[in-house]
Write a structure and sequence with these properties.
This protein has about 475 residues and is an alpha/beta fold. The protein contains 21 helices and eight strands. The protein has helices spanning about 1-5, 30-35, 80-85, 115-135, 135-140, 180-190, 205-210, 225-240, 250-260, 285-295, 300-310, 310-325, 335-360, 365-385, 395-400, 405-410, 415-420, 425-430, 440-450, 450-460, 465-480; strands at about 85-95, 100-105, 145, 165-170, 195-200, 215-220, 240-245, 265.
């Protein structure tokens, strides 16, 4: 696994002409244009006939007066343009804390009231973005939730989606024509889609629709604990659907909703430390921390080799990675010292940072945390690509990865950082939210949380265009989904 992850960080593989101690030359990760195939817009049909419309007798209620400020110039936008529409993602976990899917949504919010026309355009924009992102290869055995209004069930826009990976989520408060919605749900289920109902009321009119739902979701921000408990009792008695708690953002909330018998949980609760549990620095991580500190001090190769030899698992992982076919070596390395010389201090340090998250017994929660750390690290690095010197980009990656050390080790971030001999700039960013790297980390976390207003403000502060930030975020999500963690 770490070989695939590490491969994307851009080291170079040696050719036959290179000396034995040359660093491996590994191709850079693919661009978003290579990963995301562009959909060819429909050819505009030329015509010489001039048409005119007499609007003098058109009913005002049938006239479209709403528009979204996204120019298309008569053509469908390409994938890069779609990523500028602020596509966000939130993970959904099973009771065992394995990721079962993601909800994809548009992060851009309109100040004006959402009319039926605006809602339709937002739905179409979301579906178009997901269609152009070609989610199927990225999802694997996971599903993608998309929230749409009930009338959208009749739209031809759904044709381009991979139906067997898509859950169409309907808000029960928007169902105004239950009979029509029921018929459309049945049609879409026959095509392979699944249906989710948000915040159901269990009215007699909606019960046939709820009976078709594979998932039922409750927005925990809309209810008190007593109200949620009552809804759960009703739902468990009337439906066999998987019941999901939305907006679970802390460990306390996760424990509370788990006790209410929710089956799944949507949010970023797994990125927070677990209260009242012991600090998690096992023997494997202790060796990794020791090596990290030695690399910072530029210890001699034979000294690093001596520490690695004390841990058979670490030695095996290092040699397995170096000798993997993906690295294209012309001969197998037989010693740890050869592997260390080939990697060099900088790339060995990056490899160790990933090992911090993947050492020991990696459970479902640990895999989710590793993937989130990868996304933070990679995005923080990309954000500084054009504004900081190349020599500092590794530090940005380290800042992003280590920003979740408190959760990984289940200890305050100050204590976690104290175990490592990090330089002042790294320590400032992680502990004090200050220094040259802090603005990039704050922006990466804002992208994760989906706060578009904050993203705009933080991007402006470091002289980045908000559209380019969103493109970087989607690139990072695609990049991270390409690995099995």
């Amino acid at each position: 696994m770490l070989g695939n992850l590490f491969k994307a960080f851009g080291k170079k593989e040696p050719s036959q002409e290179q000396p034995p101690d040359a660093k491996p030359d590994i191709p850079p990760p693919p661009t978003v244009d290579e990963v995301v195939p562009a959909l060819t817009p429909q050819t505009l049909i030329a015509t010489t006939k001039t048409y005119s419309i007499n609007t003098s007798e058109v009913d005002a209620t049938t006239t479209v007066v709403d528009a979204l400020d996204i120019p298309t110039y008569g053509e469908r936008n390409n994938p890069i343009e779609m990523t500028k529409r602020f596509l966000g993602r939130q993970p959904i976990f099973s009771n065992s804390q394995s990721i079962i899917g993601y909800e994809f949504s548009l992060r851009n919010q309109l100040d004006a009231p959402v009319t039926a026309t605006i809602q339709q355009m937002q739905d179409e924009m979301l579906i178009a973005s997901i269609t152009d992102l070609d989610l199927k290869p990225m999802l694997g055995n996971k599903v993608a939730f998309i929230s749409i209004s009930p009338p959208m069930l009749a739209s031809d826009w759904l044709v381009g989606l991979p139906s067997f990976h898509i859950v169409l989520a309907l808000n029960s408060t928007q169902i105004t024509d239950p009979n029509t919605t029921l018929a459309l749900c049945q049609q879409r289920i026959a095509e392979g889609f699944c249906i989710a109902i948000d915040n159901p009321t269990f009215s007699a009119e909606q019960m046939p629709i709820i009976a078709l739902a594979k998932y039922i979701r409750f927005d925990t921000e809309q209810y008190s604990a007593i109200e949620l408990s009552k809804h759960m009792i009703t739902t468990l008695g009337r439906s066999k659907a998987t019941i999901i708690a939305k907006h679970v953002e802390s460990e306390d909330e996760y424990v509370a909703y788990q006790s209410m018998m929710f089956h799944a949980f949507q949010g970023y609760f797994f990125t927070h430390a677990i209260p009242n549990q012991a600090k998690r620095i096992d023997k494997n991580r202790a060796h990794v921390i020791e090596l990290l500190n030695m690399v910072i001090k530029q210890a001699e190769i034979h000294e690093l080799e001596a520490v690695l030899k004390r841990d058979a698992v670490l030695s095996y992982k290092l040699l397995s990675f170096i000798n993997s076919a993906a690295n294209g070596l012309t001969r197998k390395l037989e010693s740890i010292s050869q592997a260390l010389i080939l990697l060099g201090y900088q790339q060995f340090y990056r490899w160790l940072t990933l090992l911090m998250f993947s050492s020991g017994n990696l459970d479902a929660r640990g895999r989710a945390l590793l993937q989130n750390a990868l996304i933070r690290g990679r995005l923080t690095e990309l954000l500084g690509e054009n504004t900081l010197p190349a020599s500092e980009r590794d530090s940005l990656f380290i800042v992003g990865i280590f920003s979740l050390l408190d959760t990984l080790l289940n200890t305050p971030i100050k204590s976690a950082v104290a175990e490592l001999n990090l330089n002042e700039a790294l320590t400032q960013a992680l502990v004090d939210d200050n220094g040259p790297y802090a603005p990039y980390l704050r922006l990466a976390i804002a992208c994760e949380q989906g706060d578009q207003a904050q993203i705009s403000e933080l991007a402006q502060a470091i002289h980045l265009d908000v559209n380019s930030v969103n493109v970087m975020h989607v690139k990072t999500l695609i990049w991270a989904e390409g690995f099995t963690v």
